[in-house]
Amino acid sequence: MLRLLSARRVCAFVGQPRQLHVFNPRTGYFDFDVDNQSHVRRELLSLKDEALEGTALVERVSPLIVAACIHRETTPMVASYADKLWASATATEAPLELPPFTLSALAAYFASASKLDTAFQIYEKLKQVNASSVGDGLYNLLTRAFAEAGQFDRAMTVFSDAKKAKVIPSPLTYTTILINAFRNGDVEGAKACATEMFQRDIEPALDEHQNEQWTEVVAGLGSFFQQLATESADERIQAAQAGLSVFELRKKAALS
User: Fold this and answer.
1) Which residue among 133, 144, 171, 242 is least packed, with the fewest CB closer than 10 Å?
2) For each successive 10 residues of the chain (256 residues), what is the average pLDDT?
3) What is the pTM (predicted TM-score) of this model?
4) Which helix (H) or strand (E) holds 65?
5) Rounded Cα distance, 64 and 248, in Å
6) How many angstroms separate the CA atoms of 17 and 37, rounded?
7) What is the Rg, in whole angstroms, of the alpha carbon atoms belonging to the chain?
8) b/e map of 13-44 (b: 16 or more CB within 10 Å)?
């Protein structure tokens, strides 16, 4: 059964592979299973026989860009359509107006394809058009992409924007910020990130490429982690003795 999803909901799961259907900007529905990679590829191949321009380009291509991002499809054809969409939106004469759904899809796609300058331009455009349409998944994806590329100013811009929007970054995003801050020589930034993780009770989360990097961080910041763990344990004891949650204890301390 097809489901109607808001543009914000779509943005939230860009990059998450287990969702079944995505929002179509024209009909409100999307008529194929984006979880089926073979089906997605057939839909992508069907585009080559269509001369798409204007609104038709947006309606046919933008949902497929989401699907391509989910399955990490970065084929030349996908790239060419993504480039065409963004070029149409930034044309000097009669630029194509892209809805937030499409901008989110493009930002996620270009980040996944390591075209980070374009991804950041689109993110900035999306904030101007409708900042509330930036979903949790897109915040996390962009923060990690910029951090892993050593583009820390951009990573921290998105990271800060997420928290202002009351989005709690994922454990993987926090860990990626921590690792890459440390590896880029920003030890204080890494410590600040670790402190926030302890305060939020966020456990480190690693992808398959980060085990060795995490070992380096632990070797460099092990004593600081131990200090945080000790402070955290002491705080839990104090909270238990006072009959409060850790959050309530912190709130009480902040008000005193």
Assistant:
1) 242
2) 35 40 42 56 64 64 67 71 82 79 83 91 88 81 92 93 89 92 90 88 84 89 84 71 66 64
3) 0.74
4) helix 54-70
5) 46
6) 10
7) 21
8) bbbeeebebbbbbeeeebebebeeeeebbebb
